[in-house]
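lol so apparently i was supposed to do this last week
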Amino acid sequence: MNTKKLGFNSKLIHAGDYRDEFGSAVTPIYQTSTFSFKNAQHGADLFAGKEKGYIYTRIGNPTINVLENKLAELENGYRGIALASGMAAVSTVYMGLLKQGDHMISTGAVYGPSRGVMETHFSKFGVEYSYIDTSDLNELKNAIKPNTKLLYLETPANPTIQLTDIKKASQIAHEHNILVCVDNTFCSPYLQKPLDLGADVVLHSLTKFINGHADIVGGVIITKEEDIYNNLRKTMVYMGGNMDPHQAFMVIRGVKTLSLRIEKAQKSAMKIAEFLENHPKVEWIKYPGLKSFEQYELAKEQMDGFGSMISFGVKGGYDAGKVLMDNVHLATLAVSLGGVETLIQHPASMTHAGVSKENQLAANITDGLVRYSVGIEDVEDLISDLEQGLDKIN
Ligand SMILES: *Cc1c(COP(=O)(O)O)cnc(C)c1O
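anyway here it is w/ pyridoxal-5'-phosphate bound
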């Protein structure tokens, strides 16, 4: 079926669909490492690329392919590459698009390991980098060097909820022949489509909103152009960060309810944000749907909804943050985000504890910052859970 002209929800269910000879209604799990050839010539033709088909699961697999095609269609991209994890997607993009002597510009508050692998591993191969405030387009212009080859954006950034204008940043980058990659994990294609806004590559940790059930780790890269796709596909096949067929099956199942989950969660997030904004123990709050959010206009323009990630600061800093962690009961104290269950975490003592104090502050990660990923529980229950937790801070 040609699903290209269908709406987003129809695509969630049907894009990438594949019917086997038994007519199974959902995509089966092809749990096999290798595929037999009909004869010597068939094998030779597959290897030569003269015939389409499957050779070996690291190179391609029908279950994984359904997921890749579905996600590529949802992002309005050319094709997708599924990987073992979000970090496999990030490091495959760096490996494929950068070489010795190249320079990358990225968001300072980018996902910690996306920065860590650049600073500790890619730097060993002579890749240079600048971590800046990409929401400031003048800072971006000033950071461009003759050897800058990649602009790597995360918007909203994690955990500060800072937005970068994808359209304007991409225009600036393209004037200098710089490719643009956006980590779209916090939004999913339901809320933001970076390729439509000018990016060349989009990637996701499928672990979060797209799978949405906190039971799988996975990643995907989607490109707008064929040549970048071919380069990154080859990089994935050589580096070996491929997804497993069973993982792909789980994500195909999870993604079907993406719109329903996000709609429910973001409606609750708005109510929770309003509750927090008026709470005496809350020093500040960042949620793109609040009128007080500095980049509210950009959020309205660039995103199709405000999402379900909230960051807020509690009065009393580091210790107060820990008190809240220890006194919420419905919200699960865990890192990660985007699942049907509400999660809460304290970056200063958890996800970003390994980042130096100086870099934490440069990226606006303060001691009292709490990150809250709203799930699909009843919002009244979530608010009373937060209320009694905040009451324990003195
Ligand atoms: C979780 C996350 C990643 C890494 O994904 P994994 O699946 O954990 O490897 C990358 N970027 C963002 C924004 C994330 O939240």
